[in-house]
C-alpha cells in the first residue's frame, strides 16, 4: 500500500527532537491546548450542574445566603481579571512581533492582577471566616492558608527548576522556603491582624446583621451548607486555577527573560494567554451566579 | 546517539539505548507502551487475585475464610484495580501508544514528553491506590493517638469497602474504616488526568501527524477506534474528576453537596459519576473493536466489509454512549426520564450490531486461517454478542426492575469487559507480539491457553446469568437461606471452578508470551501475517524512529484478495 521515499530522511536521534516541523508543532500545541481547555470547562461543568440543581431546589435559601457575598468585591475582581486578560493578549501580540521586553512588561502586569485577585479573594474568605460562615473556623482557615502557601512555594520552585533558569533558581527557592516558614510561624498573627482589619472595615463581607448566619449553629440549615459548600468549592477551584495560570505565565516570563520569542516562535505565550482567558471566562460566569443573581 | 548508529543493522527501539534509566526517561511511544504493558499486567493480576479471593469465598454458602467486611474490601479492590488501573488505560495506553504512530506513518505521538508524563501520573495514581490498601494504623509500634490521627486525618484506615463506584452517601460515612476513601477517590482522580492527557495526545497525533497520503478515509479502523476513544477520554473524564473531588471535599471540609445530612443529594453523585462511567465502558471496549477490525481482515484475506459503516458505527457508539448514563438509576429517576434513557440505551445496540455484522461479513467466503489472534478475535465476536444481547434485557425497564443489582448484571458486564476488552487486548498482544518483540510466540501453547481461557471464562459467567435470574443479589457475602438455595449453591461452585480455570489460562498466556519474549529463538520477519497495514511494513521490532523513510500512502489498508495482495 505504500512506497517508501528517500525525500524525507530522519535526522533526529532518540530524544525525538524535531519529530515534526515547526508549523505542525505550533498547530499541534494549539489544538492540544484547546482540548485541554475543553476538559477544564467540563471539570467546572459538574460544579455548575450541582449549583443549578440546588439553586432550583433551595431557591429561597440560596437567595438569603447569597446576601452574605459582597458584590462590590466580586465586581472589583472581575474588573482586574478582565483587564489582565487584556494585558495577556497584549503580551501575545508583543511576542508575535518579537518584542520580548513588552512581553515581560505585560506578563508582569497580568501576574500583578492575579495577585490582586487572590488578595481580594483572601479578604472575602476571611470575612466569611470572621462571620462564622466557614465550617472549620479560624483554626481551619489558618491551616488552609498554610497549605496554600506551601503549594505556591512548591509550584514556583518547580517552575524555575524545570526551566533551568540559573539566575532565578536560588532566589526563588529561598523566597519559597521563607514564605513557608513565615506562614508557619506567623499564620496565627496574620489571621489576627486581618481579623482586626475585618472588624474595622467589613471588607469582603456584605454586612447584614439581620441575616447573620453561623455555620455550625442549629438554625443554619442544610440548604445554607449546600450554598456555602458550593461557594467554597467553585471559587476555591477557580482560585487554584488562577494560581496555576500564574505559574504558567511565570514560566512564560522566564522564557521572555531569555529573549526566546520571535515572530517565528511564540507558542508558549499564546497558550499561556489562552489558559489565562479561560480562567477569566470561568470567573465571568461565577461572578453573576454567586454574587448578582439573588 | 549518532545518525549512523540508529540505522545500524540489527538496531531497534529495544536495544538502541541500554539501561534502566534509558527506559525510565524514554520519550519513545513504543517503549512507553511496553512500560504500560508491564505495569498494567501487574495490576491485572492484583485485580484477578482479589477476584479469586471473592470467588473462593462464594464457593459454598456461609462464611469460608473471610469476614463480611473483608469480603467487601476484596470486591472493592477487584473493581477499582480492574476498572481504573487496568481496563481504562488498557488498550489505549498499551496498544494505542505502540500502534497509533506506526499505523499513521508518524515518528512518535504529537507530545512525547506529555506521553511520558501521563505514564508517571498513572504511577502516582497507582501508588495512591496501593497506599489506601494498607491499614498503617494497625502496625504494632504505633501509639493510639497517632493511630487515630492516621485514620481520621490522614485517611489511612485500611482498604475501603464502598465498591468501585464510591456511591454517596456510603462513601461519605464518617466511620474510621472508610477513611481511605480520600486516597482511593484521589487515586481515581489522578488516574483520570493520565487518561485525559493520553486521549488529548492521541487526538492531536491523528489530526497533525498522518503521513503524506494517509487521508482520513484510509485510516485503519484501529486508529478510528482509538481516536473515538480518545475523544471520550478527553470529554468524559473531567466530569468524574470533579465528582470524585467533591467527595474528597465533602469528606475533608464537610461541604454539603452529596450528603443528605448536609443538604446534598446522593442521586446527583450517581448522575455525575455515571455521566463519565457509562462512556468509560466504551473507552474500555471501543479500542478492542478496533483490534478485532484489524485482525479479522488479515486472517480472512478479505477487505473489511463496510469500512465506512465500521468507522461511523464507532462514532455512533461514542456519541450515544454519552446520553445513556441514567440507565444506571432506572429505579431512582422519574418515569419519563426512564423511558427516554431506556430508548437511548436500546439505540446503542444499532451501531454495535452494525459492527458485528461487518465482522461476520468480512469473514464470509474469506480464506480463514485459525491463528491464535484470529481465534481470540472470533471468540470476541461470540462473547460480545452475548454481552450485547443481555444488555438489551437490562435496558428493558420491566426486566431491569427485577434484574438490577443481581448477578445477571455482573455476568453482563463481565462479558463486555472481560469477553470484550480483555480478550481484545490478548488478541492484540498475540497479533502484534512479533512486531513488539521481534520474536514469534508458540502457536500450540497459545491455542492451549486460548482453550483454557474460553472454557474458564464461560464456566465462570454463564452460570451467573442464571444466578441473577434466580434472584441472587450482587455484592452478597453469603447466600444461605435464599430462595432456590440448592441451585444457587451449585451455580456458585461452578462459577468458582470456572474462575480458577480462567486464571490458569491467563497465567499460562502470560508465561508463554514472557518466555518467548526473552528466550524465543525464532526471529520474527517484518510481516509474518502478511498484513497490508503500515506498521508491518517496517522491520520487527521497529527502529527507534519507526520508519527509515517517511512512508507515502497511496491506498487504504485493506486491499486483501486484490492484485496488490500478492
Structure, described:
The complex is a heterodimer of chains A (294) and B (566). With 294 residues, chain A is an all-alpha fold. In chain A, 76% of the residues lie in helices and 3% in strands. Chain A contains eight helices and one strand; from the N terminus they run βαααααααα. Chain A has helices at residues 22-57, 59-66, 71-96, 100-130, 137-162, 166-200, 222-257, 267-292; one strand at residues 2-9. In chain A, α1 crosses α2 and α7 packs antiparallel against α8 (267-292). Mean pLDDT of chain A is 81; it is low at 1-17. In chain B, α4 runs parallel beside α15. Chain B has helices at residues 3-6, 20-24, 29-58, 68-103, 112-133, 144-152, 181-208, 221-253, 266-277, 279-300, 307-321, 335-363, 372-395, 397-403, 407-431, 433-437, 443-469, 485-519; one strand at 549-553. Chain B has 566 residues and is mainly α. Mean pLDDT of chain B is 91; it is low at 1-8. Classes of the chains: A mainly alpha (294), B mainly alpha (566). Chains A and B meet through β1, α1 and α7 of A and α7, α8, α9 and β1 of B.
Amino acid at each position: 500500500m505504500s512506497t517508501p521515499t528517500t525525500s524525507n530522511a530522519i535526522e533526529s536521534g532518540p530524544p525525538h527532537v524535531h519529530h515534526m516541523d515547526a508549523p505542525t508543532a505550533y498547530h499541534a500545541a494549539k489544538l492540544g491546548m484547546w482540548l485541554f481547555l475543553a476538559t477544564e470547562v467540563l471539570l467546572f461543568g459538574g460544579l455548575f450542574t450541582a449549583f443549578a440543581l440546588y439553586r432550583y431546589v433551595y431557591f429561597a435559601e440560596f437567595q438569603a445566603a447569597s446576601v452574605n457575598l459582597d458584590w462590590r468585591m466580586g465586581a472589583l475582581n472581575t474588573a482586574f481579571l478582565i483587564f489582565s486578560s487584556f494585558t495577556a493578549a497584549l503580551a501575545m501580540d508583543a511576542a508575535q512581533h518579537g518584542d520580548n521586553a513588552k512581553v515581560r512588561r505585560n506578563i508582569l502586569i497580568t501576574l500583578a492582577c492575579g495577585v490582586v485577585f487572590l488578595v481580594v479573594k483572601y479578604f472575602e474568605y476571611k470575612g466569611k471566616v470572621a462571620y462564622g460562615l466557614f465550617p472549620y473556623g479560624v483554626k481551619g482557615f489558618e491551616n488552609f492558608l498554610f497549605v496554600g502557601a506551601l503549594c505556591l512555594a512548591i509550584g514556583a520552585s518547580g517552575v524555575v527548576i524545570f526551566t533551568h533558569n540559573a539566575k532565578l533558581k536560588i532566589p526563588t527557592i529561598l523566597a519559597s522556603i521563607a514564605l513557608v516558614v513565615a506562614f508557619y510561624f506567623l499564620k496565627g498573627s496574620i489571621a489576627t491582624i486581618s481579623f482586626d482589619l475585618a472588624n474595622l472595615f467589613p471588607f469582603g463581607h456584605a454586612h447584614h446583621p439581620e441575616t447573620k448566619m453561623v455555620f455550625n449553629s442549629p438554625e443554619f440549615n442544610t440548604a445554607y451548607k449546600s450554598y456555602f459548600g458550593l461557594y467554597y468549592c467553585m471559587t476555591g477551584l477557580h482560585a487554584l486555577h488562577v494560581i496555576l495560570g500564574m505559574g504558567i505565565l511565570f514560566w512564560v516570563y522566564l522564557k521572555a527573560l531569555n529573549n526566546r520569542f520571535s515572530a517565528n516562535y511564540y507558542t508558549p505565550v499564546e497558550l499561556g494567554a489562552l489558559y489565562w482567558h479561560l480562567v477569566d471566562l470561568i470567573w465571568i460566569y461565577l461572578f453573576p451566579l454567586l454574587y448578582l443573581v439573588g | 546517539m549518532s545518525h549512523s548508529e540508529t540505522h545500524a543493522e540489527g538496531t531497534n527501539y529495544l536495544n538502541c539505548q541500554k539501561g534502566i534509566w534509558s527506559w525510565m526517561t524514554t520519550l519513545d511511544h513504543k517503549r512507553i507502551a511496553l512500560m504500560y504493558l508491564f505495569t498494567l499486567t501487574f495490576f491485572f493480576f492484583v485485580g484477578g487475585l482479589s477476584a479469586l479471593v471473592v470467588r473462593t469465598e462464594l464457593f459454598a454458602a456461609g462464611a469460608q475464610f473471610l469476614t463480611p467486611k473483608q469480603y467487601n474490601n476484596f470486591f472493592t479492590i477487584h473493581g477499582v484495580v480492574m476498572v481504573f488501573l487496568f481496563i481504562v488505560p488498557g488498550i489505549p495506553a498499551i496498544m494505542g501508544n505502540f500502534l497509533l504512530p506506526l499505523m499513521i506513518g508518524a515518528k512518535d505521538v504529537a507530545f512525547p514528553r506529555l506521553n511520558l508524563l501521563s505514564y508517571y501520573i498513572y504511577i502516582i495514581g497507582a501508588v495512591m491506590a496501593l497506599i489506601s490498601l494498607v491499614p498503617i494504623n494497625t502496625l504494632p509500634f504505633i501509639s493510639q493517638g497517632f493511630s487515630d490521627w492516621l485514620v481520621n486525618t490522614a485517611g489511612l484506615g485500611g482498604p475501603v469497602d464502598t465498591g468501585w463506584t464510591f456511591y454517596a452517601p456510603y462513601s461519605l460515612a464518617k466511620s474510621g474504616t472508610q477513611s481511605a476513601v480520600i486516597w482511593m477517590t484521589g487515586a481515581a482522580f489522578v488516574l483520570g488526568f493520565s487518561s485525559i492527557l493520553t486521549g488529548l495526545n492521541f487526538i492531536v497525533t491523528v489530526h497533525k501527524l498522518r503521513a503524506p497520503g494517509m487521508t482520513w478515509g484510509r485510516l485503519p479502523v484501529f486508529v478510528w477506534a482509538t481516536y473515538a476513544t480518545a475523544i471520550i477520554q478527553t470529554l468524559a473524564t473531567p466530569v468524574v474528576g470533579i465528582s470524585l473531588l467533591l467527595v474528597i471535599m465533602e469528606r475533608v471540609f464537610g461541604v454539603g453537596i452529596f450528603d443528605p445530612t448536609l443538604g446534598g443529594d446522593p442521586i446527583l453523585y450517581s448522575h455525575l459519576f455515571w455521566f463519565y462511567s457509562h462512556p468509560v465502558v466504551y473507552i474500555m471496549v471501543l479500542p478492542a473493536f478496533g483490534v478485532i477490525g484489524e485482525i479479522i481482515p488479515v486472517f480472512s484475506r478479505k477487505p473489511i466489509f463496510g469500512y465506512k459503516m465500521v468507522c461511523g458505527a464507532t462514532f455512533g457508539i461514542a456519541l450515544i454512549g454519552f446520553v445513556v448514563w441514567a440507565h444506571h438509576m432506572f429505579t431512582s429517576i422519574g418515569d419519563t426520564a426512564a423511558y427516554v434513557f431506556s430508548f437511548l440505551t436500546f439505540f446503542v445496540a444499532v451501531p454495535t450490531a452494525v459492527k458485528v455484522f461487518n465482522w461476520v461479513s468480512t469473514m464470509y467466503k474469506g480464506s480463514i486461517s485459525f491463528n491464535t489472534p484470529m481465534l481470540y478475535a472470533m471468540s470476541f465476536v461470540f462473547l460480545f454478542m452475548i454481552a450485547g444481547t443481555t444488555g438489551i434485557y437490562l435496558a428493558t425497564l420491566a426486566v431491569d426492575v427485577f434484574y438490577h443489582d443481581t448477578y445477571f448484571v455482573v455476568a453482563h458486564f463481565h462479558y463486555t469487559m472481560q469477553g470484550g476488552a480483555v480478550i481484545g487486548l490478548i488478541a492484540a498482544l498475540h497479533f502484534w507480539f512479533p512486531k513488539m518483540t521481534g520474536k514469534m510466540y508458540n502457536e500450540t501453547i497459545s491455542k492451549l491457553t486460548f482453550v483454557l481461557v474460553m472454557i474458564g471464562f464461560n464456566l465462570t459467567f454463564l452460570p451467573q446469568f442464571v444466578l441473577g435470574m434466580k434472584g441472587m443479589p450482587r455484592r452478597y457475602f453469603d447466600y444461605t437461606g435464599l430462595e432456590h438455595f440448592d441451585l444457587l449453591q451449585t451455580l456458585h461452585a461452578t462459577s468458582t471452578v470456572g474462575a480458577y480455570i480462567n486464571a490458569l489460562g491467563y497465567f499460562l498466556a502470560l508465561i508463554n508470551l514472557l518466555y518467548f519474549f526473552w528466550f524465543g529463538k525464532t526471529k520474527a520477519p517484518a510481516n509474518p501475517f502478511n498484513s497490508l497495514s503500515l506498521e508491518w511494513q517496517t522491520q520487527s521490532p521497529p527502529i527507534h524512529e519507526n520508519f527509515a523513510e517517511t512512508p507515502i500512502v497511496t491506498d487504504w489498508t485493506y486491499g486483501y484478495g486484490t492484485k496488490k495482495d500478492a
